[in-house]
Design a protein that fits this description.
Helix content is about 30%, strand content about 35%. By secondary structure, it is of the alpha+beta class. Strands 1, 2, 3, 4, 5, 6, 7 and 8 form an eight-stranded antiparallel beta sheet that branches. About 20% of the residues are buried. Flavin mononucleotide (FMN) binds next to strand 2, strand 3 and helix 2.
Length: about 200
C-alpha cells in the first residue's frame, strides 16, 4: 500500500502527492474532482471539474460564472470537492470557500487554452437549453467567421474560482482488515492545521 499521510505535513502538499501517485498509477484525468455546491433555496448540485493545484493554499478551476454553479456560488460560497481514485482505494474531500480568481489569473488560463476550446466556450452558454446540438455548431462557426484570424477574447463571464480549504480529509482503503484509514486536517483560526483521525 502506498504511504498514508504525515500528520505534520501541509495537507495541500499531501494532496499534490496523492495527485502525482494517481497519475503514476495510470488514473486518467487524476485531477478531475466532483464539486458540490448549494443553491439559494438549499438544493445541492454536484459536477466534475478539472482541478489545478499550483497555488500553495487553494485549488483552482475555470468555468462560466453565469452557469448554475456560478449562481450557486454567488449565493453561497461554501463548497466541497471530492477526488476519487478507486484503483488506489483513495478519496480526498476538500471543504472550503470559493472566491473568484483575479482577471489576470483568468486571462493567463484563457491564453493557455487551444483556440478551438476558446471558440467553443464563447459559443456555448453553459447549461442553457439550446434547440439542438447543430445550433451550437452553427453558433461556433459564426463566431469564428466574425473573429477571423484575431485573438479570441475571454468573456467577462468566464474565469476561475479558488477553493480555499477549511478541511481536507484523506481516505485510504485497507482491504486486509476493512479498518480503512481516514485522516482529517482542520484549519485553525491562526491559519495552522490540526490533524485528526476518524473512524471509517
Ligand atoms: C472529467 C470532466 C471534467 C470537467 N471539467 C470541467 C471544467 O473544468 N470546467 C467546467 O466548467 N466544466 C467542466 N466539466 C463539465 C461539468 O461537469 C458540468 O457539466 C458543467 O460545468 C455545468 O455544470 P453546472 O450546470 O452545474 O454549472 C467537466 C466534466 C467532466 C466529465
Amino acid at each position: 500500500m502506498p504511504e498514508f499521510v504525515t500528520p505534520d505535513a501541509d495537507p495541500m502538499d499531501e494532496l499534490r502527492r496523492w495527485l502525482n501517485e494517481a497519475a503514476e498509477a495510470g488514473v486518467s484525468n487524476p485531477a478531475a474532482m466532483v464539486l458540490a455546491t448549494v443553491s439559494a433555496d438549499g438544493t445541492p448540485s454536484a459536477r466534475a471539474l478539472m482541478a489545478g493545484t499550483r497555488d500553495q493554499d487553494s485549488i483552482t478551476f475555470f468555468t462560466h460564472y453565469t452557469s448554475p454553479k456560478g449562481k450557486d456560488i454567488d449565493h453561497n460560497p461554501n463548497a466541497e470537492a471530492v477526488f476519487l481514485w478507486t484503483v488506489l482505494e483513495r478519496q480526498v474531500r476538500v471543504r472550503g470557500t470559493l472566491t473568484k480568481t483575479t482577471a489576470e489569473v483568468s486571462d493567463g488560463y484563457w491564453v493557455s487554452r487551444p483556440r478551438n476550446t476558446q471558440l467553443a466556450i464563447l459559443a456555448a452558454p453553459q447549461s442553457s437549453d439550446v434547440p439542438d446540438h447543430a445550433a451550437l455548431i452553427a453558433a461556433k462557426a459564426e463566431i469564428e467567421a466574425n473573429i477571423g484570424d484575431g485573438d479570441v477574447p475571454r468573456p467577462d463571464t468566464y474565469g476561475g474560482y479558488r477553493l480555499t480549504p477549511d478541511s481536507l480529509e484523506f481516505w485510504q482503503g485497507r482491504p486486509e482488515d476493512r479498518l480503512h484509514l481516514r485522516a482529517i486536517y482542520r484549519r485553525d483560526t491562526d491559519g495552522s492545521w490540526s490533524f485528526g483521525v476518524m473512524a471509517p
